[in-house]
Amino acid sequence: MTVILVLFTFATFLLIDHFHSRKAVVIQPAIVVAKTERPAVRAVPDLVAGFKVPENLRYHPGHTWALSESPSLVRVGLDDFASKLMGKVDRLALPQRGQWIRQGQKIATFFRNGVSVDLVSPIEGSISDVNDGVARDPKLAQSDCYGEGWLVTVQSPDAKTNFRNLLSGAVARFWTQESAGRLQSRMPAFAGALAQDGGVAVDNLADQIPDQQWASVSKEFFLS
Q1: Is the residue at 166 inside a domain?
Q2: What is the pLDDT of residue 41?
Q3: pTM for this one?
Q4: Per the domain annotation, does 125 fall within a domain?
Q5: Count of C-beta atoms within a 10 Å radius of residue 192
Q6: In the chain, is it the N or the C terminus that has fewer CB atoms within a 10 Å radius of its CB?
Q7: 35, 86 in Cβ contact below 8 A?
Q8: How far apart are CA 98 and CA 113, in angstroms?
């Protein structure tokens, strides 16, 4: 039921974004192309409910992001909400180069205290490259999720269509705000760990969640 509600909310956001975009005087491109070979998201991000939400990215509601480097090459990572909810993990499993992945299906698995949680892909295509650095040191995914902590790059022949299914701008910020509020409602015992009055959320929200509940809470928000 939770997944159905989340997907319904996501669809509503997309409709709002569609009509808002039609009314805008300046139409923004669906894909923002980075100018560097391996871009780190260095633009000053918006802070939403304590979580960083860079404006130049597109987001999957399962809290992964996509950045276009060319018409068909897309860099993928996890967002700030996911990195803080993930906490300090023991191991990270990434797909093989050349493996085909689908939008909304598993792209990475994090292991923490003997429990695994999957993240879903924001894009469909063939794995072009894997971040071996973050595979060796998963802490990068938490400390620099928009930079050196990226996960994979994907050759996506239909990237433009895939990007239309993702969140951006005001809709992405609203989604992050909604996720933060839902997390507070889900785990009121550690509501104080989330940012108040414009502050930044603590780096390791996972430490505030009992081990026996961490997997179920993470899977709810990561849609896995």
Answers
A1: yes
A2: 53
A3: 0.79
A4: yes
A5: 11
A6: N
A7: no
A8: 30
Contact 121, 94 (CB under 8 A): no
Which stretches within the chain are classed as H helix?
Answer: 2-23, 80-86, 132-136, 139-143, 159-164, 169-186, 211-222
Residue type (1 letter), 29: P
Among residues 195, 191, 182, 186, the alpha carbon closest in space to that of 63 is found at 182
Q: Which residues contact 15 (CB under 8 A, 6 or more apart)?
A: none
- pLDDT at position 36 is 39
Lowest mean pLDDT across 1-5, 26-30, 145-149, 194-198: 26-30
Indicate the burial class of 3 (C-beta count within 10 angstroms; 0-12, 13-18, 19 or more).
exposed
* Residue 52 in domain: yes
Total domain count for the chain? Answer: 1
Residue 47 to residues 10, 17, 51, 197, 210, Cα–Cα distance (Å): 21, 20, 5, 11, 27
Residue 15 lies in a domain: yes
Tokens of residue 40, six digits: 């780190």
CATH at residue 144: 2.40.50.100
Instruction: Indicate the pLDDT class of residue 163, thresholds 50, 70 and 90.
Output: very high
List all residues 6 or more positions away from 174 whose beta carbon is below 8 Å from its beta carbon: 13
Confidence of residue 52 (pLDDT cuts 50, 70, 90): very high
